[in-house]
């Protein structure tokens, strides 16, 4: 069995100020029956109906909530739970930390997880436990590497 961790996922960054500005623009535009600013926002996101406008507002609210909770200086509107991590290109970007355990002989993934942890340091034990839970005890002579 092999266990592998990786980080990836490029996301749009939005500061708390930008999120608040967009929320304010949508609210003001809604009060003016979707004139100017809201039309621009909706056109930017290729949206047009009330339901879609509400979905944007929900995403912005969730992003602002996550920004306050995480203490980060910026957050993604599309994926506010992502965290800043160094990727394989040595860039620090908003990412997740996926973990997989693969059976070397068959190539089948036997355990996986996605975390917000910046490093893999605490990931080995949960992956081993998840693997044992998914496949049962390993046959005698089988090794994890």
What does this structure look like?
Keywords: Coiled coil. Residues 12-73 form a coiled coil. With 145 residues, the chain is α+β, with helices and mostly antiparallel strands. The protein has two domains: 2-10 and 81-135; 14-75, no CATH class. Helices cover 40% and strands 20% of the residues. It has helices spanning 16-31, 36-44, 50-70, 124-135, and strands at residues 2-5, 14-15, 74-75, 83-86, 92-95, 97-102, 109-115. A three-stranded antiparallel β-sheet has the order 1-6-7, with helices on one face. The protein has a two-stranded antiparallel ribbon with strand order 2-3. A two-stranded antiparallel sheet has the order 4-5. Strand 4 (83-86) and strand 5 (92-95) form a beta hairpin. Helix 1 packs across helix 2 and helix 1 runs antiparallel to helix 3. The protein is elongated, with a radius of gyration of 21 Å. The N and C termini lie close together (6 Å). Mean pLDDT is 75; it is low at 33-38.
Layout of helices and strands:
Blueprint: E1 2-5, E2 14-15, H1 16-31, H2 36-44, H3 50-70, E3 74-75, E4 83-86, E5 92-95, E6 97-102, E7 109-115, H4 124-135
Antiparallel strand pairs: 1-6, 2-3, 4-5, 6-7
Helix pairs in contact: 1-2, 1-3
Essential attributes:
145 residues; alpha+beta; 2 domains; 3-stranded antiparallel β-sheet; two-stranded antiparallel sheet; 4 helices; 7 strands; 20% strand; elongated
């Amino acid at each position: 069995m092999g266990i592998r961790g990786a980080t990836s996922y490029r996301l749009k960054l939005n500061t708390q100020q930008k999120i608040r500005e967009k929320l304010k623009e949508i609210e003001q535009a809604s009060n003016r029956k979707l004139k100017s600013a809201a039309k621009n926002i909706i056109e930017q996101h290729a949206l047009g109906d009330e339901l879609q406008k509400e979905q944007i507002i929900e995403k912005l609210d969730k992003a602002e909530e996550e920004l306050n909770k995480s203490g980060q200086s910026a957050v993604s509107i599309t994926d506010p739970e992502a965290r800043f991590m160094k990727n394989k290109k040595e860039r620090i970007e908003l990412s997740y930390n996926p973990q997989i355990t693969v059976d070397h002989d068959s190539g089948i993934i036997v355990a996986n997880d996605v975390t917000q942890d910046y490093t893999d340091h605490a990931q080995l034990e949960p992956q081993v436990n998840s693997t044992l839970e998914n496949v049962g005890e390993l046959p005698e002579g089988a090794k994890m590497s």
